[in-house]
Amino acid sequence: MGSGESNSNCTTLADAAGPVRRWLTAYFRRHIRNHDEVDDLVQDVFTRVVARDSVEPIGHLGGYILRTATSVLADRARRRAVRHADLHVVLDVEQHGDEGIDPERILRGKENLHAATAALLSLPERTRTVFVLRRLEGCSHKEIASQLGISISAVEKHMIRAVHHLSTEMEKRDAS
Questions:
Q1: Do 162 and 122 form a contact (C-beta atoms < 8 A)?
Q2: What is the pLDDT of residue 101?
Q3: Angle between the 61-83 and 13-31 helix axes, to the nearest 10 degrees?
C-alpha cells in the first residue's frame, strides 16, 4: 500500500482519539460514582496504550481499548480496597468553603499534566515502558526486569534516565 493510500479497516489511535475519549468518558461515568476521577481514568487508558511494548499491531482497537479500560477499573478497585477509600468522607465545599479551588491553579495543574505526558511520550519506548511499569503500575525492579527480559541494573539505568529526562523537561517548562 502506498504512502498516499489509506486502509479503511485500520484505525490508528490518533485517528480514533476523539471518539475513543468520548466513549471512555461515558464508559467510566457508568462504572464509577465519583465522576471527578473520570478524566484521570481516561488519561490512564491512553497512557497504557501509548506505553504498550509490542511490535504486533492491535487487531481490533475497540476491543483492546475496552480491555485496557476494564484493567484500569480493576486496578482502581484494588487501590481503593487497599486504601479503604470508600470509608473516606467527601469534602463538602458548601460547608468548608472553596478557598482551595482556584481556577488558575487547576489550569496550571492541567498544563503541567499535559507537559509531563508530552515529556513521557518523548522518552525512548523501552525507557518509557520501564518508567510506566515502575511509577504507574507499581511493579518492582525485579518484576520489570523479568517481564522485559533485561537485568535489574538495566531497569535502574532506564529509571534514572527517565527521571532525569522528565525533571529536565519540567524544569525547562517552568523556566519559560
A1: no
A2: 67
A3: 40
Q: Pick 144 or 175 by higher pLDDT.
A: 144
Task: Indicate if the pLDDT at residue 110 is higher than 70.
Answer: yes
**Residues, the chain, total?**
176
Cell numbers standing for residue 91: 469534602
Grid coordinates in use for 59? 487487531
- CA-CA distance, 19 to 25, in Å (whole number)? 10
SS (H, E, C) the chain: CCCCCCCCCCCCHHHHHHHHHHHHHHHHHHHCCCHHHHHHHHHHHHHHHHCCCCCCCCCCHHHHHHHHHHHHHHHHHHHHHHHCHHHCCCCCHHHHCCCCCCHHHHHHHHHHHHHHHHHHHCCCHHHHHHHHHHHHCCCCHHHHHHHHCCCHHHHHHHHHHHHHHHHHHHHHHHHC
* pLDDT classification of 6: cutoffs 50, 70, 90: very low
